[in-house]
């Protein structure tokens, strides 16, 4: 079946679509009530709230799809604040001509990712616009974090170690090579990182800052953190993890892994004294195997790269369009 | 300035757009922290959570615009559960070619509506896709409701009175006539109804069900409620409020106000014994002046219209496409 405008009219056909696909895959005790808004159990902690829209093209790529991405993105944003992600909404803008089988595959992927992350999809919305069979997804998320928790973009401190949880540029390189119809072994790193983060927090590590390294790449994210905290970040070029495949592609196409987007990598800042402990914990998790200590926070401003030659090069945030519709 | 793909890349241009427009109009103590996710004060009550996307065309119409609509829609969904709306996220999918002045007007309208509703916009997201200068907005919302509150779509009871808070079909008729470039005096009813609802709840009225009468119109909404509650709803044709302008348009174009969408009208079900009290309170509010008792809940199933001739006619939910992109 192809999605048509009537599926977005709010009448009988919308209802069939909701019950036939969304309610079937996302079902849980809260969603099943099908109210105008979901009534949640009381939260155990301070509420944390976020939202992201996803417009990635192509819809399916090695390592993921727009559905998986839409759950991971919001789950990871909550985890970055030290929150346990709990509830998501899922709102769909469908283009006419979209195959309902395609939609079903995407929704199944969202359900599987939500299951892995341990979150419930509790409410949603469906609209239809004229188009060419694509779709956009928005997810909003609520999590809860402990009353005492200072994790923040503004909480970097001099003498923090900067940990990067894995190789840089994989998602970006995957989307780009898919668009160029290149055959490669690249896989998006798209993953829900909340359990990885929780393991570090549960071990009592005094984490100052967590940020997922998405659009704009490490260069942009690190610049924002340095600015928010009033500190300087030094990254060691030789320690930054980049896969051989991404290195090769970057060489050929003139890309810089520092400004390439990721969907399953984080930067964590912890006091130097706790860095080795945090690293060992991360390396023992499913998505943190390649974690490294790749830099440090100092007094000052800006982000600098200590090159293999021993000089410092200023790192600038992404300018220009990067790769459109990467997430 | 025209929006281009670089504004969605997550780098310097995205940051300028966020700070230049979104952060300027939406500013508050929580949003200003610009974290990956907003850390909220503890909620006073049970959390209620919802999300809606908005794709209305045209972007501006008499009585409102996509920005006002996007705030009202989510605020009203929370109010329908008896919750006090508190926090919203605002996520934008911008099409290339969108004028930044147009975006700014829409964002200003969102900020003004949020102010009226008493909610804070605490987080957001911006993506850019290729297109023709349009945009889509998603808002998600969190509210809090009292621990003891049974307001639900499934809580209609026989001997409830059905109150409709104002005239039907205004938003639908406005969007339709704008598309047809007809000159009329029609105005969308788009409005934040949370204060109206709160006034009724604060007076201690035992409200069983609240539903905003949006896409699909009263016919669709009443059908869903009757089904969820296992009851029958009888509506009195002569009591249903419809403006002369909407009546005239419906006559000419063969429309049915029962399936026309609204953006500032609600159905409330309250025990018959409290109906007059609730009505008087509603009629004393800004958006409830034209409220009427228009029907009743009985044992049985389905929705029926008591016609002027004294016969009962079965009311069916909207089938087919209604009016695409009405909200």
From TrEMBL, chains A, B:
From which domain of life does this come? Bacteria
Q: Which CDD domains match?
A: HypE
UniProt xrefs under NCBIfam families: hypE
Using the record's annotation, list all stretches that form the PurM-like C-terminal domain: 158-304
GO biological process terms on file:
protein maturation
Family membership: Belongs to the HypE family.
Put simply, this protein is called: Hydrogenase expression/formation protein HypE
InterPro entries listed in its UniProt record: HypE, PurM-like_C_dom, PurM-like_C_sf, PurM-like_N, PurM-like_N_sf
Ranges for the PurM-like N-terminal domain? 35-143
């Amino acid at each position: 079946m192809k999605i048509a405008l009537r599926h977005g009219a709010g009448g009988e056909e919308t209802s069939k679509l909701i019950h036939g696909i969304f309610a079937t895959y996302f079902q849980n005790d809260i969603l099943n009530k099908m109210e105008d808004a979901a009534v949640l159990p009381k939260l155990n902690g301070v509420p944390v709230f976020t939202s992201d829209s996803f417009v990635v093209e192509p819809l399916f790529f090695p390592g993921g799809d727009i559905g998986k991405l839409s759950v991971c993105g919001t789950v990871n944003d909550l985890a970055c604040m030290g929150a346990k992600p709990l509830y998501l909404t899922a709102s769909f803008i469908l283009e006419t001509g979209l195959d309902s089988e395609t939609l079903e595959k995407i929704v199944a992927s969202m359900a599987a990712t939500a299951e892995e992350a341990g979150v419930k999809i509790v409410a949603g919305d469906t609209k239809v616009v004229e188009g060419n069979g694509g779709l956009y997804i928005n997810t909003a998320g609520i999590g809860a974090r402990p009353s005492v928790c200072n994790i923040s973009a503004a909480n970097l401190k001099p003498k923090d170690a900067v940990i990067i949880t894995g190789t840089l540029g994989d998602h970006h390189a995957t989307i780009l090579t898919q668009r160029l119809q290149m055959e490669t072994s690249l896989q998006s790193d798209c993953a829900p990182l909340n359990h990885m983060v929780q393991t570090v927090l549960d071990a009592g590590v005094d984490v100052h800052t967590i940020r997922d390294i998405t659009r704009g790449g490490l260069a942009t994210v690190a610049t924002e953190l340095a600015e928010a905290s009033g500190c300087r970040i030094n990254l060691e070029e030789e320690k930054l993890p980049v896969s051989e495949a991404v290195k090769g592609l970057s060489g050929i196409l003139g890309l810089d892994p520092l400004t390439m987007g990721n969907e399953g990598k984080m930067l964590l800042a912890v006091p130097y004294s706790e860095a080795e402990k945090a690293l060992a914990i991360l390396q023992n998790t499913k998505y943190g195997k390649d974690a490294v200590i790749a830099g440090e926070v100092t007094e000052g401003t800006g982000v600098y790269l200590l090159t293999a030659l021993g000089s410092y090069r200023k790192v600038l945030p992404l300018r220009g369009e990067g790769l459109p519709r990467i997430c």
